[in-house]
Structure formats: C-alpha cells, structure tokens
Design goal:
31% of the residues lie in helices and 22% in strands. It has a ten-stranded mixed sheet. Strands 3, 4, 21, 22, 23, 24, 25, 26, 27 and 28 form a ten-stranded mixed sheet that branches. With 741 residues, the chain is of the alpha+beta class.
C-alpha cells in the first residue's frame, strides 16, 4: 500500500446503492448525444481491435495501432468492472461528495487543490499527436462501451473525456502525496472547525505495500533473468490483461482500473515491478501572511506578493439533492494552503499530476532493452514508486524513487520549512544517476519490500552515507529482513523456486517479540497466579512455534491477535528523516517491555477466543478467511457464507505473501481485504515463460465464471501458466470478438 502520504479513499457501498437511482439519469441522454458520424467512427475503430478472452477470462487485446489497442483495453476493462473504472475517475475529479455526501467533502477539496482540471485540459490540448491519439482512444473505448450497454447505469460519469487520464498520471492506488498534511488539518483550516465530521481520514502507519524481486542469470538454473511481481493492494483493484499492437506494443500484467498502461508487468524484452516509495516528493512550507488594505500577501525574499485566491465549488449529496458548497482557497508560489500550524499557514509543494508522468507510464511499457528503460526513467516523473527491473539480456536493476527534487541537505525536509525565502526552494530535479539505484550487483539478486534501499542487495547494497537523507528516509521492515535472509542462501532459481520463496510465510517480528514475552512471563508471573494457570499452555505453544504462519497453526492465531494489541509503534511502517524504523522500534520495545505491556494483551486474546469459539486453541486457517460474495467495491463479509482458509498472514509481521485480514461488523472470523492481489513471475529467455495468480478472478461480475475461478488456487498459492504468445492464446480461447459484438 502505501505510506500515510497516499490518499487511499474508502468507498461506501451503501451510499453508492442508495444514490444509484438519483444518478442513473443519463444513458438515454448520452446515447442521444452521439451523432451518426460519432457512432460510425467508433464502430470503425472497434473493427481494428480483436479481444481474445482466454480460459481464465483474461483479455488479450490486439490492435492495428497503439491507439486501437488502448480503445480495446478500455472497452475490456469496462466489461469486467465498469464501476471501478468510473469510481477511480469520480475520485480524481473531486466529485465523491456527489454520491457520498458531506462525509467526503474535504477529501474532494484536497483533490481539487492538488489536481487542477484546467491544467489537465491544457495538457491535452498541447499533447503530442501520438499521445493525443491514445487519450482520444481511452475516452472512445469507454464511451463506446456505454453506448453498446445501455443497461449499465453510471453513478455520475455518463461521458468520459480524453483529458481524464491527465488527472491521474501514475498507476499507484492513491498516487497523492501530501507530505504529513492530513485531510483533518485541511478541514480545520477551511471550515474553521476541528470537529471530525466532514472528512474521511487516511489510515496512518499501516503497512500494505508490495514486494519486487529480480534474479540475474548467475542465480538461475536456466541462465536467464527472472522477475517476481507481487503488489500488495486492496483486492480486485487491478485486473490481469495483455495489450498488443502492430506498432511495437506487447505488454502483459496488471493495469489499474481506468488507466490505459500496464502498471506492473513485462513485455518480451523486460519487466518492471513497482513498490510504494517513501522518497520525499512533497514538502510543507510555513508562509508569512500579511494583511494589507484588506488584501492578503505572503512574504518572499522580503517582498510582499499577493496571495492567489480561488473559489472552488463542491456539490454534495443531501436528502437526494446536490447542495453546492463554496470554498475560498489560497495559494502561494509554493502551492495551495493546506493547514495552519503554530499560527502559520502551511502550503504544500508537490507534483501530483504531470503529462510527463503519463508519458513515462506509457513509454516504459514499450522498452526494447535496458537503455530504453533508462531513457524512460530519465523523464524523472515517477513520484510514488520504486522500480525493480529485469530483462532478456540478463540485466537486473533497482531505482529508489525517480522524481526527487534537489534541496538543501542541511534541512530536515520531513518537517515544515520556511516558505518566505528562496533558499528553501527546490533547485531542479536530481539526475537519475544521482539517485539511489543499483545495476547488476555481483550477488545476483535484488529485493524491495517497501523497505530501505540500503539492503536491496544485501552486502552489495548502496551505502546510506552516499546520499541525502531525503532520498531514502525509508527504514527496514520485517519483510525486507525476511527477503534478505532467503536470497542470501546459495540457490539456483527456477520459476517454481521463486514462487516458493515468494510465499515464505515466516513472521519474523515474532523472533523478537515472543522471547521477550516468555522472559517476562517466566520472571514475573508466579505458578500460583491465575494468569500463570491461564497462560501457561498458550505461552508454551508460542515458545515452541517456528514463527511460520500455517493454516493449522494455533500459535499463529495467538501471535497475530496478540501483536495487534501491543504498542502501535511496532506497526509504524513508514518513517520520516531522523525517525527509527519498524525493526528498531520493535527491538527497543521488546527490550524494555514490562509484563504489563505484554501479558494482559495475551490474556485478552485468550479471553476473546474462548468467548467466540469456546476454546483458545483455534487454528489460524479457521479464522483467517478469504470471501468474495459479490462484486461491490466495498465488500461486506458474513460468517454464514462460504469462505476459504488462508495460511499466510499480514506482511506487517514479516510474511512475504501478504494477506491482511480483520474482523468485520462483529464477525467471529477475520476476512482478508488487502495483500497479494496480482502476483506474477517471469523468466526472460529466447521465449517468455511466466506464471501468474489473481485474487479471486478477473471479472467483477458475480455471474461470471471468472469471478471466483482462481480462488482455490489463490488459497493454495497455485499459479497458472501465462499465455503470452498469440498461438497459445488462440489455443485456449474462450471467446474472440471485436468490441461491441
């Protein structure tokens, strides 16, 4: 997932359903707005596209041109899950309040302050002809789908515009960087109220993230490079697709709903895996505001400059009607005013959308070799990702971030800096060769698990002292520790061996926590105490545990439930410059923890389990479940409905495969909602060999056989063969058609 910098919106299924009637006015009107000429044009484009659905429902799109392929890709996405395509753009347009009401009013305001619709429209007008063709095809593909499917009732967006993708130019789940500024602070500033009523706050310090691994020929049995792609996201956020054209495009992987480029994947030459980065890409400035003759000014290098004022109107749903809310917003040369701290207005400098970012997201998918990919990186427009790379020539590489402003190294840029002087301004961007990166390390492997780049290749990693602190404030985490431990062993990897190690479920945090627990228990709890009698057996189970999450493991249940009740500092996943990381925090906590900080928490777990199940001896798979009962964006879970046991646990505690679960509305069982989603391993030889797995299935339609056809495979970590070559796709074709047929 992602750092607290990311704005990961929380969707409300109930409000979506209650407002459907209100918003479904449009299909008839929209279809009438298409002229015969428009329809003829779309029909002609559709004939230039062939979609082959394989036996897993995965769409393989073949277009005469790149633009035709984009048209087919967007059409296929809408077939699989139009509601997710639409919702992503409702959010990026800052219009969630129109369907969810006041609860997200200030989330919309944040988006409108950071993402300027007029700038996106201008970028579209100024786009190079090749890019404009892709943008036009993006809109045409979705609009053609709506024209052909009048039974589909959009919530708001009855017509998609070609400039929409320029609002959201990065494939990350949130892709909004706000430094440490929160929606709560924004609401307090622009409403004058500190009441927690009109915003949905982002979760902080919650580790989601992703894993990326690359293996050089020296570490593989075949002598070919291998890449492991393992994003940890909200389930069903990315489908699996292939998109090809006769203009050199042939990419396979995961695409974020509503975007027209493969975000994490590969072509016949190379592959790319993105993990969420904590590189500093957005900064907070304290402004010196002066009121003079009833006008606002800000001081900059001892000069007074007028504050820019903009009126923003956001409509929110209330009692079935749209109510407009006007905001007078403020901007300085640094960016929008987002908060007030210590009596000073705080502005945010960021780069949350850019045409270069969208260009980079596209051109990298057509890279022919390492040099091509490095040229894409030289655009320096990727603001939210680290990149793990491998290719057919045997190269492996790692880049920690990409868009990194040059700053004064003597300042702590995770804090608010003085906005009234030019000395604190960004001084351009670092060249890629100045950033933390690593090409072809001698150890033959690379890893990133949203962890520090200074362990990316074990002892062959970049050195922290060689780089400014703002380039990599990321600390170590327990997934990173686990990965380094595994890959430092002397192995020759195959696809299957990479998958096996990628599913290493060791919860390495408990190597630190459980010895601390047993020590304080044995020292402080007397055999005659009630706590001793109650906990002796659970403590013994934990003490004899091998720290691996397993379906039949009672110790896994005890440990995971217990850890969530401990000091939240051990969950602090993303750190700023100068802060201690998750591993250091956990070691410090374990070293100093008293019996009161460890034992009552385990007592509470035992008590809870007995209350729910009649015994504390509950195997992990009994409560850790995978359920997909419908295609709603915000799923509801039900103990009475079928679900599957899942053996592995949350990445927060060190498991490489991540399955983050929680109790839902008083349920007895924990249900997964985030973690391993699209997982793929690819070997780059004379021919591509790859295997993949998707949470549940590729379709969001509960009536489709591909809604849940990969569920048992997901449960067992059993991968399917990727059908990359057209001959293989045709042999396994379930349906072949042009869009609209």
């Amino acid at each position: 997932m992602y750092p607290c910098k990311k704005n990961n919106m929380i969707y409300s299924a109930k409000l979506l359903q209650t407002t459907l009637l209100f918003c479904c006015i449009s299909i008839f009107a929209f279809s009438q707005n298409l002229s015969k000429k428009d329809i003829a044009k779309l029909e002609k484009t559709a004939q230039k596209v062939t979609i082959i659905r394989d036996n897993w429902g995965i769409p393989h799109i073949y277009g005469k041109t790149d633009a035709a392929a984009v048209f087919g890709l967007m059409y296929a996405q809408c077939e699989d899950d139009f509601k997710r395509v639409e919702m992503n753009y409702i959010e990026k347009l800052g219009r969630l309040s129109e369907i969810k009401g006041q609860s997200v009013l200030y989330n919309d305001l944040e988006i409108k302050l950071l993402i300027d619709i007029n700038e996106a429209k201008t970028d579209y007008k100024n786009a190079a002809p090749w890019l404009k063709k892709l943008l036009d095809s993006y809109a045409d593909g979705i609009n053609f789908y709506l024209y052909k499917h009048p039974e589909v009732k959009p919530l708001l967006l009855t017509h998609f515009e070609p400039w929409f993708p320029l609002l959201w130019t990065d494939g990350s789940i949130g892709a909004i960087s706000t430094a440490d500024l929160s929606v709560e602070e924004l609401k307090a500033f622009y409403s004058g109220s500190n009441e927690k009523t009109a915003y949905v706050e982002r979760e902080k310090n919650v580790q989601t993230g992703s894993n990326g691994f690359a293996f050089a020929p020296s570490k593989t049995a075949s002598g070919n490079a291998i890449l492991y792609i393992n994003p940890h996201t909200t389930f069903y956020f990315r489908p699996e697709v292939q998109v090809s054209s006769e203009e050199g495009l042939n990419a396979y992987g995961a695409v974020t709903w509503g975007q027209f480029f493969i975000y994490q994947g590969f072509n016949e030459n190379c592959g790319w895996m993105h993990t969420s980065s904590n590189v500093d890409v957005a900064d907070m400035y304290a402004e010196k505001i002066v009121l003079k003759k009833n006008k606002l000014f800000y001081e900059y290098d001892k000069k007074l400059i007028p504050v820019i004022e903009k009126e923003i109107i956001i409509k929110y749903l209330e009692d079935g009607k749209l109510v407009p809310k006007k905001f007078k917003t403020y901007f300085t040369n640094n960016g929008p005013i987002m908060a007030k701290r210590d009596g000073k207005w705080i502005s945010l400098k960021s780069n949350n959308r850019s045409m270069n970012s969208l260009i980079q997201s596209w051109v990298r998918t057509k890279s022919k070799d390492f040099n091509d990919y490095k040229k894409a990186m030289d655009l320096k427009a990727n603001t939210s990702n680290n990149t793990v790379y491998a290719d057919s020539k045997g190269n492996i590489a790692y880049w920690h971030g990409n868009f990194i402003p040059v700053r004064d190294k003597n300042l702590n840029w995770s804090k608010v800096v003085d906005g009234s002087i030019s000395a604190t301004q960004w001084k351009g961007l670092h060249e890629v060769n100045e950033t933390v990166h690593l090409y072809n390390p001698t150890n033959g492997w690379l890893q990133n698990c949203n962890s520090t780049p200074y362990t990316a290749a074990g002892t062959n990693s970049p050195k922290k002292e060689d780089y400014p602190a703002y380039m990599a404030p990321d600390g170590e985490n327990f997934r990173g520790i686990n990965a380094v431990r595994i890959f430092s062993q002397d192995k020759k990897y195959t696809l299957d061996k990479v998958i096996a190690d990628g599913y290493d479920s060791k919860l390495s945090i408990f190597e630190i926590l459980i010895p601390a627990l047993t020590e304080v228990f044995e020292k402080n709890i007397k055999p005659t105490d009630a706590a001793y009698i109650e906990l002796a057996e659970p403590i013994s189970a934990l003490k004899n545990w091998d720290y691996y999450a397993k379906e039949n493991s009672i110790a896994t249940t005890l440990a995971v439930e217990w850890a969530y009740k401990l000091d939240p500092i051990i969950q602090k996943a993303y750190v700023n410059e100068g802060e201690t990381d998750q591993v250091e925090n956990t070691k410090k906590f374990a070293k100093n923890a008293t019996a009161d900080q460890l034992v009552p928490q385990l007592q509470a777990v035992v008590k809870d389990l007995k209350a729910k199940w009649g015994t504390w001896q509950i195997p992990w798979g009994e409560i850790n479940r995978f359920q997909r009962s419908n295609g709603d964006i915000n799923l509801k879970y039900d103990d009475s409905k079928p679900s599957l046991p899942i053996a592995y646990g949350p990445g927060s505690w060190g498991s490489l495969p991540s399955f983050k679960s929680s109790y839902q509305n008083g349920s007895k069982k924990r249900y997964g909602y985030n973690g391993n989603s699209f997982v793929c391993v690819v070997e780059f030889g004379s021919k591509i060999k790859a295997k993949s797995l998707l949470a549940g299935g590729n379709s969001g339609d509960i009536n489709s056989k591909h809604f849940f056809d990969q569920a048992q495979m997901y449960q067992n970590g059993q991968f399917k063969d990727v059908l990359f070559y057209k001959d293989d796709v045709e042999k396994n074709a379930e349906r072949t058609y042009h869009p609209g047929e």
